[in-house]
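Quick log. Single chain, no ligands specified.
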Amino acid sequence: MDGRKSAYWMEQLDERIMEFIRSEGWASPRLLEGERGFSASERRIRERCMCLHYAGFIEPIHGDMYDLTSEGILYLKGDLDAEHYPEPTPSKVFKDRYATPSDWAHASVKPYW
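-> predicted structure:
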């Protein structure tokens, strides 16, 4: 983890998701929820996957399954500064404002979960 340049919006869960994908080759929010070391709900993991996808670090490969992008691999190696990648705000990640989860009231407010 040393040498990684994370963005202010990133969470420890984001790195755990990407590290799991790097070690296993792919992951889905449902799979991650059941894995040892993941205490977040499937919904929360899904939201973080959507944020990581918007920023360009992971991509869906089939349905709800995700894989790392080259940017995600470079980030995990410490060769990419995540601060230079798009900030995943609710209005950007959930393009349809009616699809935005109700507990994402404002982009600058961190979710309580």
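Strands lie at 58-62, 65-68.
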